[in-house]
From TrEMBL:
This is Arylamine N-acetyltransferase. SUPFAM superfamilies: Cysteine proteinases (SSF54001). InterPro entries: Arylamine_N-AcTrfase (IPR001447), Papain-like_cys_pep_sf (IPR038765). It comes from the Bacteria. Belongs to the arylamine N-acetyltransferase family. Coiled coil: none annotated. It holds the Pfam family Acetyltransf_2. It comes from Saccharopolyspora cebuensis.
Length: 257
């Protein structure tokens, strides 16, 4: 069963925090540092990756928080949303299309994340994205925001809001695009042609994606392509050696430190 106090303890919080921005920032970053993203669990779902977007909170809590496995976007953000609701935050479900390697964006319902309203301001809350991206809540604003050496901004393009990131040396690059209007779970019901086609490409590629944040950055492993971002500085390598690849996987999944 979903247990707020046990969840908080896993995130390193000994008591229930207030529903304020300081607590949201702490919990958000701790979640990304503590519970990894791991798409390997999508393989058994086949083209029905988005079948359970409205998660069974108790079952996912048992598998992820208590059982220690990683999760995908809607599992991790669904659990975090349930935690925030219990703590008194005002949340809503958002969706996004992630920027692809070829520069296009995935379907609008591809990625599931959250919005939190605090003191009349909207914050993007996303603990289910592999990165590189924001590790603390991002204010829904056109202002530049700095986190762990990277700059973030939200622009408006073609009717969408676009989260953009800039590292220490690279130029601005889109992370994903979204509409700020809250989503309803029934929007994912049935066979959505755009999602089915997208899932077929993902399943066909067979690429496993894993990631975890650390205090000053993020580790992202897409297949054998390893991206390490520390204080805004990026290093990319292809892990040809199997032993090295396995060590990185274990580090991300925390099978070993």
């Amino acid at each position: 069963m979903f247990d707020v106090d046990e969840y908080l303890a896993v995130l390193g919080c000994d008591e229930r925090p207030a529903a304020d921005l300081e607590s949201l920032r702490f919990l958000h970053k701790r979640h990304l540092m503590t519970i990894p993203y791991d798409s390997s669990w999508n393989a058994e779902r086949g083209i029905s990756i988005w079948r359970d977007v409205d998660i069974d909170v108790d079952a996912v809590f048992e598998a992820v928080v208590r059982g220690g496995r990683g999760g995908n976007c809607y599992e991790l953000n669904g659990l975090f949303r349930a935690l925030l609701d219990e703590l008194g935050f005002r949340t809503a479900v958002l969706s996004a299309g992630i920027r692809q390697v070829d520069g296009t964006f995935g379907p609008d319902l591809e990625h599931v994340f959250n919005r939190v309203e605090l003191a009349g301001r909207s914050w993007l809350v996303d603990v289910g994205f592999v990165g590189p991206s924001y590790v603390e809540p991002l204010l829904l604003s056109g202002d530049e925001q700095i986190q762990c050496g990277s700059r973030f901004r939200i622009t408006e393009q073609d009717g969408y809001h676009v989260v953009e990131r800039k590292g220490r040396t690279a130029d601005w690059s889109p992370v994903y695009r979204f509409r700020p209007t809250p989503r309803q779970f029934h929007e994912w019901s049935g066979d959505q042609p755009a999602l089915v086609e997208f899932a077929e490409r993902l399943v066909g590629a067979g690429t496993v994606i894993r990631g975890r944040a650390f205090e000053t950055g993020q580790m992202v492993l897409i297949g054998r392509r390893y991206l390490h971002v520390d204080d805004g500085a990026e290093a990319v390598r292809v892990l040809v050696d199997q032993d090295e690849h396995d060590r990185v996987v274990r580090t991300i999944l925390r099978a070993e430190s």
